[in-house]
Structures are given as structure tokens and as C-alpha cells.
Input
Amino acid sequence: MSYWISILTEACIFSIMALGLNVIWGWAGDFDLALYGYVALGVYLTIVMTTGPALSPTQYILGWHLPYVLAVLLAVVIVLPIAAIVGAVALRNLREIYFAITTLGVISVLYVIVQIYTPLFNGFNGIAGLVTPMAGPLHISYSNYAYFLLALCAVVLLIVVVVLQRLSSSPYGRAIRSIRDNEQAAAAFGRSVFRSKLTAYVLGAGLAALGGTLFAAYLGAFNPSAWAPQEILTLYAAVLVGGRGNVRGVVAGTFIVYIGFIELTRYLPNVGGNAEFGPSVRQILIGGLIVVMLKFRPQGIFPDRHGVPRSARRTQGTSGATGGGWRDRLPLLAGRASGGRPEQDVIS
Output
């Protein structure tokens, strides 16, 4: 039972991270490679703001004794302006592969700084010491804490899903999809492409940081080896499997990828006594999964249906999240809207 409690807790946490990626990539269409850096910042900041001053030879900034909930809020608040700066630079004049390369550069620089600058987060050794936060104030026994943490992560995930579902159906959700499908048509009808994409980027980064704060409570420790840049591929696989743009589909995809690929590969034997055999096969399977999904079902298991006419749903998924037929017809709808309410026709 404790094993499954642990798996479900991690799946809930990774679902929150994947939903952040879904906002940036699934809704706004920006291929972001820096998102796991916001997760790492959420973990690091939560730990250094709750575990107290560093004891020699450990070194790290802050060293506060804040309540866990307050540390979570502050960690997310600190990450948001960092994401806003990165997004403002990358989104101003860059799109597609150039945007991806820029965000990859950002995460690589951050990764190296955290590794080599020891006074920041204790360098390669990382930081530790966050043990069962909230257990004391809430009088939760150690034996029951795992159940409490699972319930907490599940409740946070549920709140995030409900909020994103409402946001997805709102005028903003429809507007950001119209920008993803055709920036020129959306801009022609008064939509601010840069502002909309930047808000989506900051929102996605905030969700990634929120997932990182919960990850800190689950792990209790963190170091650079736990957030290598390729970790983002697992989240992309989850979004692809579930359905790019579909909130509930992304949650389902995360559980499928995490339990079906991450956990099952832990039982692979060590071939030739090589302890890295299982993790290596895991990375190969995840990479293969991404290729297969992109080739045969790019819309995912649960395609995003928002804004897609019934007549176009049969061909949905032939190109990206919304289907090539619908994307190609969007400029025609913009032109057809000249006699009515053009803005609503374009983004509906």
C-alpha cells in the first residue's frame, strides 16, 4: 500500500507540472525547454525557506524557518517574475525553433550556475532537511503522513484542473488558441499576441513551480542530478499521450506515462551488472513514445475539442493539436466574419 501511495503522490505532482507545460505548449503553442528549471527553483526555494540556516560545510541562501504553506507561496511568487523576464526576451521576436533554443539556453545556464556556485544551493551536493512539513502543526503522525501528502497533492491537482478547465472555456482560452493556430488572423482582429503568449508562459511557469514545491515536500532533498534538462521529455510525452491542449487528457496522459513507463522500467534486471540499464531503457522508451505519438496520433488519446466544429472533428489531429483542416480554415473564417462579429468568429 505504501508503494502505491508513493506512486500516486508522484503522479499527482507530475500532473501539475505537465499542466503547466500544457498551458505553454498545448494552449499557446510555444515549445518551451526551460520549464523544468522552474520546477527546480520551486523545490530549492521551498527547502531553503523552511529548513533553517545552513550548517557547515553545507551552504545555501536564505536559510529561513518559514511555515511550509508560506514558503510555497513565496517560492511561486519569486519564480513568476523570473519566468516573465525569460518569456519577455524569448517571445518578443522569437518563434518555434528559435524560441525553443533560447529557453534551452536559459535552462542550461541555470543548471550550470546551480552546479558550480556552491553558496547558492550547495552546488553538486544539493540541499536536504525538509522532513514531513505540516505534520507537526497539524498533529499528523509519521505513519499517516504519506496519506496526508497524497490527499494534499490530489486536492491541489483537482483545484488546478478545475481552474484550468474554466480558463480553457473562457474568452482568454479561446483567444490563446486562436493565436496558436494563426497569429496573423488573431492579431488582425485586435488580439495582443505578445501579451497573451507572455501571460500563458508565466501561468505555466507558476504551475511548474507549484509542482516543484509539492515535490520538495515529497522528496525532502534535491540536487542538480535530479533535474537534468532531459527530464522535460517525460512531461512532453505525458502531454502528447493525453492530448495537447486537453486539461483532463494531460492528467490521464501523465498517469499513463508515469506508471506505465517510469515505474514499470524500475523492475528491469541489471544486464551485465550495469545499474544504469533500467534508466537508460526508460529514456529510450520515452523517446520512442514521443516519436510514435507524433507519427501516428499527434492529437493524443483524448484530443482537445475546444473550438473545433463537429464537422472538423473527424479529421482532427492530422496536424498538431487542432487538426490541419481546422487550422487551414481559420483564415477563411476570419474573412467570412466581416459582416458580423469578427472577433468572436475567429476565436470561437
User: Anything to note?
Assistant: The first strand starts at residue 127 and ends at 128.
